[in-house]
Design goal:
The complex is a heterotrimer. By secondary structure, chain A is α/β, with parallel strands linked by helices. Chain A contains 13 helices and ten strands. The chains are: A alpha/beta, B mainly alpha, C mainly alpha. Chains B and C meet through α1, α2, β1, α4 and α7 of B and α1, α3, α4, α6 and α7 of C.
Chain lengths: 317, 345, 267
Amino acid sequence: MSHHIVEFQDVHFHYPDGTAALNGLSLRITHGESVGIVGANGSGKSTLLMHTNGFLLPQSGSITIGDQKLDKKTRQEVRKKVGLIFQNPDDQLFMPTVFDDVAFGPLNLGLSPDRVRECVHEALETVGCLGLSEKPPHHLSGGQKSAVAIASVIAMQPDILVMDEPASHLDPKSRRALINLLMHFHHTKIIASHDLDLILDVCKRCVIIKEGRVIADGPSEEMLSNRRLLEENNLELPLSLQKRDFSPGGDMDEITKLHHLLGHWAEHNSEHAKTYRDWAKKAESLGRKDLAELLLRIAEETVAMDRLFQDAMGLCR
Amino acid sequence: MHMADALLSPAVGATFWAGTLGTIGYCARKLKENMDEKMVPLMGVLGAFIFAAQMINFTIPGTGSSGHLGGGMILAVILGPYAGFIVMASVLTIQAFFFADGGLLALGCNIWNLGIYPCFIAYPLIFKPLAGSGASPKRITIASLISGVVALQLGAFSVVIETLLSGRSELPFGTFVLMMQPVHLGIGIVEGFVTAGVINFVRASRPEILESASSARPLSGGISTGRVFVGLLIAAVLTGGALSWFASSNPDGLEWSIAKVFGKPELPEKETGIATALKSVQKRTAFLPDYDFKKHEGAGEGNRGTSWPAVQPGTSVSGIVGSALVLAAVLLIGLIIRALRRKSV
Amino acid sequence: MFDSEYFNLGYLDTLSYRDTVIHRLDPRAKLIATVLFIVTVVSFPKYEIAGLLPFFLFPVLLFSLADVPVKFILKKVLLVSSFAVFIGIFNPVIDRRIVYSLLGVPVSGGWISFLSIMLKFFLTITSALLLIATTSFPGICHALQKLGMPEIFVSQLLFLYRYLFVLTEETMRIVRARDMRSFGNKGKGIKAFVHLAGTLFLRTVERAERIYQAMLSRGFAGRLHSVRSYRFSGADGVFVGATIAALYLFRAHDIVGAIGRFSMRVF
């Protein structure tokens, strides 16, 4: 399975009006990685994404997806491996109902009608939108739209998911749901976004690009906590890492800081507990009582731990 | 102006539907033969654009009244006649469903009036030669104005013809034409200005869009407008022939044959002189003393001579009572079902 | 004006996704029944009034069985800027022959034919609105395709339906911005409109480009496939059969007259 690589080698691309969007970009991503692409507006993020799918082809240099070199002939094949999720779900969901939309890709792959229905069912189940199947996209909320957009892509069972600003249309709660969803995918993920907190949560690796070239590449925590590096590239620290100044004057004392950190650490506890319980149910339905029990205990412990966090935060006040 | 179901006879409605369906089928075949797949989403979204733009009102200078875009000309210029017509037809279809503009039977007429003329007459015969291939805004403006006016004049004239052939309105031809054409002269000029404005705006800010749209579309000189015109001429002659056949040999065309099929003894409905009109009114109008005739068809023969408008009070009242009872029964049925449904919910 | 039209559009669309006996019928059955209904109604001659009354049974049944809000549809029918009313109103002006005396009040042929046009107008428009209020638009498109409409026209209708709401919403935002900054009629002229429409046009073309990319990335190769299967069930057959039988009965027989005479004899 390790052959699902994405490799850019010295890729150059100029738009017809002369703007150089990619300027000798090189990047190698291997199977199962989750990579965040960050950079200021006009840094070449979108152009980079357009290359993963063959909408744009490199003018010089080469791109390899899996074991195929990307060119005019192979791009049809490459598109089956790379699922591209667009920024605006209204552009992504072009069919009149959710079902038709999710079925669009599998049908184009030439699957049988029954197999198509299965694929649609699985994909909608994965994103938790089974009930929406017959709805037209304009009856969905923003969060539902982006979940269905993801379903429409994963229904084709791609190896690599490429996303452009996946959360830019979402309210905080839907954004959080999306992040949880993405964390559970085992696909190779490439996410371009200005939402650095999202990158921090979802991606282990982070690539900073500027003027069509890779400026820095490394583990997300390292990259995204480097204030100087970020500011040089017109970015700023993720909100969760910013030490905000709440008191009217002077520096935040250590206790207040701890209070914020505790909040950050405990942020996902309740969601995790819920996930453990869900899996416990699944394990039980599969006949693995032992696993189910253990998972339930983990869930309980998590809830208990969350209470401890709340207590600690209470003491910090 | 949208033609309406209530003004149509089935024969006229069906004839124009036939013409419209034929054109849709013809365009679909043409597009299937040589269309860039890029056109599929472009056509769809441009239809939605026309739909949305039509909902915006603007004030017409000098009149204070407000107008809105028609869109047929813009579509023909940008997408070419075949795709333009299909898109216009789909916009009108959605309007017929969601806004009840005119109705479903009249939709055939409306697509004909607002789609065929801009796409297959005004665009190939007027706009293209006048605008030329050059990108002179002045020429585009003049071409749009003249083709807008011609398309709408033809459309308005068709409305007159359709209404008169259906025989539901009392308006005489001359009055009707004098009423419709001048109003639509104004609407046509506005349409022309707006078409020119939008096309010049797009040409000035993003010229490549018009070029890429026109290179993706199928009719880029390959098919002569002459052939299209001849085809339309044949269609027009056939339609005209069919219509006049319906109108003359079969009084009220289809409904005559429906009546025959349904076995209801109906008299020719074509009202020409006052005498025949009176007679038919006497025979058919529900409130009139005809009920007795129908009941005792044979025995009542002698009563036909009853001088008009001597109304026999008994039968007239029976008509009114019948009407009232039918309406009351219908209403009652509705109320009962509603009540039952509420209960079960 | 724009807002309320948009709201009506959305509301009608929402109604069509409800779940009632009528909603569950096959779209083909409803489309065929509606078309037959309209043709039968307009097939009545110019001076017919009484014969049209029994046809009110159809909208009443649909309103109640499908639980469609009556007020909403009636309002929509009344608000339709109708060409039929505009043209029909000339009938009483032109045709002044007195043909009937209603309890001593003389009535002209023109008024009778005008009333007939109004009844037909109400019946045909209401039935079209009821069709869309009880059938989702994708369902209607599917029916059209099954009944032989060319594929490209149907896919065009589906695209239009999908982006109608997206674009009208976008337009509404632009129009609101225009209205907010235009005092009186300034800024509502043709020039402002052209600028607005031009901007909207450019955005639309860019959107088409993005949609095309999204389609390509999911393997689009020129055709929009579908795996939908609507089944024309026994209930659908009964529905269409009953409609045809009732239409025939109402068209070929003088129901109103019969009921009237019968009741006269009884009382």
